[in-house]
Amino acid sequence: MERYSSPTSDKRACLCKDNSYSRKCCTGELSAQGIGNITKTSVTRYYTATNCSGGTKHIHTHDLNLTVGNIYYLVFKHHNHTDCYTITATRASGNFEITTATAYNNCTACQAAN
Known about the structure:
By secondary structure, this protein is mainly beta. 6% of the residues lie in helices and 42% in strands.
């Protein structure tokens, strides 16, 4: 059984002779080394967020990394709870999806701008 360094399926792209990458160049030859998965994978992160006006939400983001201790104007997917929040902890799950986060120096500045 031969082993190859490049994939032969159409799920990954490979190095072409012109130094570009394409699925069409996946011939199984060593010179056409694969580059891995070429489909975007999303990273979901979970946080506890405390509203600057009081109250806590368990939130999650997709491809958005928030910093614990920082204040953000968070836009919720369904806009029901959009407001200024401090990220207080990471966690294992979260109910509310965040679509956008804008950082501020403090709650007063965040609330004044929004």
